[in-house]
Design a protein that fits this description.
Layout: H1 3-17, H2 30-39, H3 45-58, H4 62-67, H5 70-77, H6 84-99, H7 105-109, H8 116-126, H9 136-145, H10 155-168, H11 174-187, H12 206-209, E1 227-236, E2 242-246, E3 257-258, E4 261-262, H13 265-274, E5 283-284, E6 288-291, E7 296-305, E8 319-322, H14 335-343
Parallel strand pairs: 1-7
Antiparallel strand pairs: 1-4, 2-3, 2-8, 5-7, 6-7
Helix pairs in contact: 1-11, 2-3, 2-8, 8-11, 9-11
Length: about 350
């Protein structure tokens, strides 16, 4: 099947079966497409939809997002994960607000958080320019359709996938084609048990012809996922407020608010002693697990009711007494911290 036939098959399929009423497909603007593409990085559509709707309602334009406080942006991102995306989005909004929205691939890729595939998606969908993309869904479609040996994360395989993506990308109707091939991967050519009988290009799919659909894409070499452990200190005052501190701007949960974190219970007891906090009455929660992309985190918490203000201040504006019932307090909280707060 030549590129023209491949494109036609996907476009005809998309017109009938594709998802064409997703929130970011309505009232299409470069800003809305950009926000959706950032949210969709490593996150499924069904998860993104409510976050996108709430986020764009709160921050309807680049200008509003650029002028917002990072804490407020992170608050509306809480639970979506990969928080560097939100920090980069906020930083890039400031740059776009000052210089205008880029309309070339190189200018878009100069913004934080935008790689070649994301830039291609923005330009093809928002500006109707002809640019190839290579997100996870497209990789899966091409790996199976061309029976590409080699893990997609390998440099040589990734390079080959880009060549095929450019080969099949049309000069016209790129906006619909881009959404069609992403949709095909997300709804038909799925990871497990793909729906080949629904695929518009199944007859010429090499993996299907070889009877090796389950072999593609070649899986990532297995790697041991390490486990880390920590204990959070949950201080609660007589107003039922919780003591939170702001994490460093980089790293896991960068810029979010969290309970003070320690490697063990002894560390908490030592810190409390320095702050003259009575630890005679405390409650230790059982361990829970939260899994990141590269390690497991087993975490517990010690709850202490403390009647006097904590004098410890790491840095001005880095610690707060947080009232979970106050709707006007907007801070970004990692999912495990949210779960602990709900448990208390």
């Amino acid at each position: 099947m030549n590129p023209k036939q491949f494109q036609t098959a996907l476009l005809n399929w998309f017109e009938i079966y594709g998802r064409q009423d997703l929130p970011w497909q309505r009232n299409v603007t470069p800003y809305r497409v950009w926000v959706s593409e950032i949210m969709l990085q490593q996150t499924q559509v069904t998860t993104v939809i409510p976050y996108f709707e709430q986020f764009t309602e709160k921050f309807p334009t680049v200008e509003v997002l650029a002028n917002a406080q990072l804490d407020e942006v992170l608050h509306h991102w809480s639970g979506l994960g990969y928080y560097a995306r939100a920090r980069n989005l906020h930083k890039a909004a400031g740059m776009i607000n000052e210089h205008g929205f880029p309309e070339t691939k190189n200018d878009l890729m100069a913004l934080p958080g935008i790689g070649e595939s994301t830039a291609g998606a923005i330009l093809s969908i928002a500006f109707k320019q002809s640019h190839a993309i290579l997100d996870g869904n497209v990789k899966r479609v091409l790996c199976r359709y061309m029976a590409i040996e080699g893990w997609p994360g390998q440099s040589a395989t990734n390079k080959l996938l880009w060549e095929y993506s450019r080969y099949f990308t049309p000069e016209k109707n790129t906006d619909d084609y881009t959404q069609a091939i992403m949709d095909l991967g997300a709804t038909v050519c799925i990871r497990s048990n793909p729906h080949c009988y629904k695929c518009p290009v199944s007859e010429t799919c090499k993996a299907r012809q070889l009877g090796r659909i389950k072999d593609f894409p070649v899986p990532k070499p297995k790697k041991h996922i390490p486990t880390k452990k920590c204990v959070f200190l949950v201080l609660q005052n007589d107003k039922k407020e919780l003591f939170l501190e702001k994490r460093a701007p980089v790293g896991i949960w960068g810029g979010l608010w969290s309970f003070p974190e320690f490697s063990d219970v002894e560390g908490i007891l030592g810190w409390c002693k320095k702050q003259n906090i009575n630890t005679d009455k405390l409650k230790i929660l059982s361990f829970r697990r939260h899994t990141f992309s590269h390690y497991h985190l087993n975490y517990s918490a010690i709850i202490i009711n403390h009647q006097n203000p904590v004098n410890y201040i790491a840095e001005a504006g880095r610690t707060i007494w947080y009232d979970n019932s106050a709707k006007n307090v907007k801070v970004g909280l990692p999912t495990p911290i949210k779960r602990l707060i709900e448990h208390i």
